[in-house]
Structure formats: C-alpha cells, structure tokens
User: What shape does this take?
Amino acid sequence: MAQDAHRESRYRWIGISVAAVALLGWLLALYFWSASAQSENALAQQRSMVGSVAEIETRLVALRSEAAQAEIARDQGTSELVALLRQLDETRADVAALTSQAQALRDERQSLETDLSAGRDELGVLDDSIAQARQVVADTSQEIADVGARLEEARVQEADYQARVAELSAQVAQMTADASEAQQRVQAAREAEASLEQMVVTARQELAAIENTQAVVEQSVATLVQRRDLLAADIAAAEEQMRVRQAMVVELSQSLVERGEHLADLEARIAQLQDQVGHPARAAAAGLTIGAPYAHGAVAASFAADGTFRMSNSRTGVAVSGAYSLSENILTLSEAEGDLGDAAFPMRCRISAEATGFTLADEDGSCSFLAGVLFAGGNR
Assistant: This one.
C-alpha cells in the first residue's frame, strides 16, 4: 500500500510538471506570436508534445489496473494450489490406508495357510480326527468368505481413489489454463510497456517500476507452473502405486481361488475316505459282502470294493457290468454296459439282509426288473 501511495504521489508531480510545461508553452506562444513561421512550427510541436504526455498518463493508469488484476489472478492461483495440495495429502492418506489393508489381507492369508497345514497334519489320524477336520474346513470356508468381503471393500475404495485422481487431474488442467491466461496478460503488459518507452522518454522510470511489478508476477506464474509440475509428478506416482496395488489384489484373488480349489479337493478326499470307511459296514448291515459271489438261479452277481458290479447268466451267456453305490439300504446300479435287454439304468433297489444273502425290492419303479429276487451267497 505504501508503494502505491508513493507511485500516486510521483504521478501527481509528473502531472503538475506537465501542466507547468503546457503553461510555459502558451506563454512562449503569446510572446512569439508576431515572430517568424519557424517559431509557429515550434509552438505546434510543443502542443503535440503536451497531447502525447496526456495519452501516456492514460496508458499508465490502464497498465496499473492490469498489474492489479494480474496480482489478483496470482493470489487466486495460489489459493487453488493450496487446496489441491490439501486434496493430494488426503489422497496419499487413502493410499496408505489401502496399503495397510492389503498387508492385513496378506497376514490373514498366511494365517489361513497355517491353519490348512495344521489340517493336513490332523488328517494323518483319520479315525480320530474326521469330525475335527470338518470343523476346520467349515472355519476356513468362513474365513475365505470374510477375506472375499474385505477384498470387495478394498476394490470399492480403490474405485473411489481413482475418481479422486480424475478430479485432481481436472483441477490441474484448470490451473494450467489459468496460468496460460496470466502469461497472456503479462505479455500484453510487456507490449504496452514497450510502446510507452518508444513514445516518451520521460516516463521510462515509471515504466521500469511497472516492469519490476511484471517480473514479480512472472515469478509467481513460474512458481505456480513449477508447483503444477510437482503435483502432476505426485499424481503419476500415485497412479503407479495404484497399478502395483491392483496387481497385488489380482495376485491375492488368484491365491484365494487356488486355495478354494485346494479346500474343495480336501473336502472331496475327506468324503471319499469317509465313504471308504463306512461302505463295508453299510454293505454288511444290508446283507451284502463285498467281493463275495452271489447267485439267483443261473444269474451270478458280484460286488467289488472299487464300486463296480457284474451280473451274468450262465444259460444265456448275457453279462452286464457297471457301478454301484449303497446308501441307507438303497442299492443303486448305474453306468451299466453289456446286454441290457429291457432293463433301464440307473436302477434303485431297496436291499434287505436275509439268512443266506439279500433280497432286492422296487423303490421308485426303476427296480421292477429285480424286485423280489433273492441273491444267495456262495460262501457265507
């Protein structure tokens, strides 16, 4: 403010000086009114000089106004840059939070792998730990579901971060446009300054002061451009960190999928082992001895431990083979091959133990071909 008052004072004295020069010119004109034509030409030149100085004053006022507008634009750009830096700090905090969550997910995955290793050790003693293995599998499935939910939450947060980065990029573009406009205004001020220097030598000192003001504005604009470049570099680094985090999320998802497949295989093995353990007992309770031959007239039948059966007729030479399963006194014959005739498979028959073997009964209409047949054991 003191500098502006000083400038106003200097401009006022320049105006007074110009007025004095004009008054002196008029006095000289009156004195030399009767002089020669050369004196009249000099008087005309002085009048032209007085008009040029008035135009210079008008242009100086316009330049001061433009310089004030440039300073206002610089202050606005500085405020917007401070807001952008604050938003960048918030974005960095979000990135740090996401990184912490990714580390927590990795720790949980390591914990799950440790639990899975313990489950594998427990499978060594199958008879005593089948119930415990089921519980471990159930707990692990719940943990996988929790990890999946956390992963989905991380993806949502990552989408929010991408939206914030896009908003910051738009703001940087707006600041770039503002800086370009400020540079155009500075260039216009330079051209006006050059024009004033050519028109009058006496105004050079004031124009030098204006040049100093313009230099300050240019320095401010250069600082804003430098800060914009730094902000763009930070945004690029944040985007690179986001890409790395996406790769980590993809890798973690793949690991979880592989672990789910491994757990599914583990459950299938447990079910298979349970079936192998309980199958002979269920077969014995139904009157069926695994591997023993059975006969009904000319028809011979046998059921192997690998889940396959074979039936043949010694009189006709017809033979049928396939797979069988036994559950809750229901004998299911399926995947039959050979001379099937009118028989349809799969065939579900209720099996009942007898003193000499077992009897088959129709369960749902598919076992009518063997309903009421008694298969007697050949070696009981």
In short: The chain has two domains: 2-269, 293-377.
